[in-house]
Amino acid sequence: MIKLIVKTFINNYEAIQDKKVREAYGVLGGILGVICNLLLFILKLTIGMLSNSIAVISDAFNNLSDLGSSLISIIGAKMSNRPPDPEHPFGHGRFEYISSLVVSFLIFSVGFQLFKSSISKILAPEKVVFNSALIIILAFSILVKLWMFSYNRYIGKTINSSIQNATAFDSLNDVLATSAVLLTTLISHYFNFSIDGIVGLAISVLILYTGLQIAKDTINLLLGSAPDSALVQDIKTRVSSGQYIVGTHDLKVHDYGPGRILASIHAEFPDTISTIEAHSIVDDLEDQISNQLGINMVVHIDPLSTNTEKLSQVNVFVNQEVRKINDQFCVQHIRITEGLHKTNIIFSIVVPSDIKESEYKGISQTISKRLMAAQNHVSIVVDSVVASNT
């Protein structure tokens, strides 16, 4: 159903790299959220007050917070698409992350208020008034929230939106919460045993956890989390496929918000290739990555020395120093890029399979420090640490 809605209301809906199309997806998701959550809030609040159920009323206000989240997602989609200005030269894409953070605070605030109300209900329990309309509305709410989870997940994956993904996760929590309320109502009616306050407390804790989790994930994005490993590999593969390129290193990815990723990488060319030819090759690679991945890419040209005598000398030097650290370490794929003031030595390290991956970064740093201390005017790039197959 969501695909039909997308095709109906979003022009050129397949061009998800287009910032206007991406904005339209976000706004559509927000509008659907406002409509669904407003309907559920009115229905649940009404039936909750009539049945005297704190669990249902808690669930109603959870939907009200979701409505606020949907409004914020609309604002976030609009604001994040604003063009760059002198104060924000990389655009306003991170506004979406800020919107997600605001949503997490709203969710947490609602959860805290419901936590207090549920404690009061446990201390002074009241009988829940059972009626068939209550059961119908709760069942209807579960179906609506399942659909909301489905369409938010679809939009989130389609446009790689943190706020839509957070909303999808929250909708799934709502399914569990409303299911618990439905179960509570049936138990209270058929077994004459009230667990209304306890379930309300459980729902509030679930809401609090959701708010904290969304805040944590969003703060990681704002601080600058590690890029997706699949994206890193995709970029390296695309650049390595360029004519004459024999290797890559120093890939850096900067995330300024969805659709605003900047990246740079060093591409290694034999020093026999002319600068003009190498520049033409990297220009094509930058355009390809920009068009296909939506990434503003800069490929730096690193000329590799083809002086076999010098390569042999460096190979002996590096292997000797590395084996002083651990005689089971093996050096592979040594390359040299020579500059006026320093020489870059690039290589991979093969380590025993019993060494943990968590130790790889420390191994790289130790090797780099030792080699630079042993030889002036060199820069060391350990482009990978891999486990031995033997």
UniProtKB/TrEMBL annotation:
Q: Which domain of life, per UniProt?
A: Bacteria
Q: Mind telling me which residue stretches traverse the membrane in this protein?
A: 24-43, 97-116, 128-148, 190-212
Q: Does Transport show up as a keyword for this record?
A: yes
Recorded topology in the membrane: Multi-pass membrane protein
Q: Specify where it is mainly localized.
A: membrane
Q: Which InterPro entries match?
A: Cation_efflux, Cation_efflux_CTD, Cation_efflux_CTD_sf, Cation_efflux_TM, Cation_efflux_TMD_sf, CDF_Transporter
**Which keywords does the record carry?**
Membrane, Transmembrane, Transmembrane helix, Transport
Single GO molecular function: monoatomic cation transmembrane transporter activity
Cation efflux protein cytoplasmic domain residues: 227-303
List locations, semicolon-separated.
Answer: Membrane
Q: Name a GO CC annotation attached to this entry.
A: membrane
Occurrences of domain Cation efflux protein transmembrane (ranges): 31-223
Q: Does the keyword NAD apply?
A: no
Return the similarity comment: Belongs to the cation diffusion facilitator (CDF) transporter (TC 2.A.4) family.
What is the name of the protein in this document? Cation diffusion facilitator family transporter
